[in-house]
Write a structure and sequence with these properties.
7 helices; 8 strands; Rossmann fold; alpha/beta; Ybab, Chain: A; 5-stranded parallel beta sheet
């Protein structure tokens, strides 16, 4: 469907159309969402920032997600109630686990952005970009974080996604733009000819290039 993430970003930019750079902020989920978001910003002139999300692994089974949390700590974590109950955890315990993950999110933000502050979202449209939607847990955490930061409108923009997950995000965001919903869907990478991993160095380079002053 797409040659690579940059090609997908150009297609996504066309679908998004004109954006008001003074009233919009593009938020990329690193690492895969960054090249996609770069193209959206290049097309629209909107400023680029990151929204970092971390999975909360179940005790002793870190690959099993009991929830997800976004950086900043303003929003409650997204909790997978079924996994929480299977692990014998309470919601309070999951929230405590989420708090324990915040230092790692802040470490990653410092790695990618140095001392650059987060862009202001209050009263603006937050366009959250990733390279695709699979389960949607991290995207849901990102949406809730943007709302907690008083974004006036939250738009999810992805090149490819699972149809059920896209429908679920429509209940969370003000608008969901997804270019392709293949069936059957088995992985985000199925939509790309080139789906190489995005490195930390590539994210740092992209964010350095996109470090324009905040629009008023």
């Amino acid at each position: 469907m797409f040659h690579d993430r940059k090609a997908a970003g150009r297609a996504l930019a066309q679908r998004l159309g004109a954006l008001d750079p003074a009233r919009s902020v593009v938020l990329a989920l690193p690492r895969g969402g960054v090249p996609v978001a770069q193209e959206v910003c290049a097309h629209s002139g909107a400023p680029l920032d990151l929204i970092l999300v971390r999975k909360i692994g179940a005790p002793g089974q870190q690959e099993l997600a009991v929830g997800a949390i976004a950086d900043g700590g303003e929003a409650d974590p997204v909790i997978n109630a079924q996994v929480m109950e299977l692990c014998g955890l309470s919601a309070g315990e999951v929230r405590d686990m989420a708090k324990a993950e915040q230092p790692e999110l802040e470490r990653r933000r410092a790695l990618y952005l140095g001392a650059r502050p987060r862009l202001e979202l209050a009263g603006k449209t937050a366009i959250i970009v990733d390279d695709g939607l699979a389960t949607g847990a991290t995207m849901k955490a990102a949406i809730r974080a943007a709302r907690a930061r008083q974004a006036a409108r939250v738009v999810v923009a992805v090149p490819i996604g699972a149809v059920d997950t896209v429908a679920e995000m429509q209940a969370e965001a003000d608008e969901v733009i997804c270019l392709e919903t293949p069936s059957p869907f088995w992985a985000v990478g199925q939509g790309y000819a080139n789906f190489d991993q995005v490195s930390d160095a590539e994210v740092i380079e992209a964010m350095t290039a996109g470090a324009a002053p905040q629009q008023a």
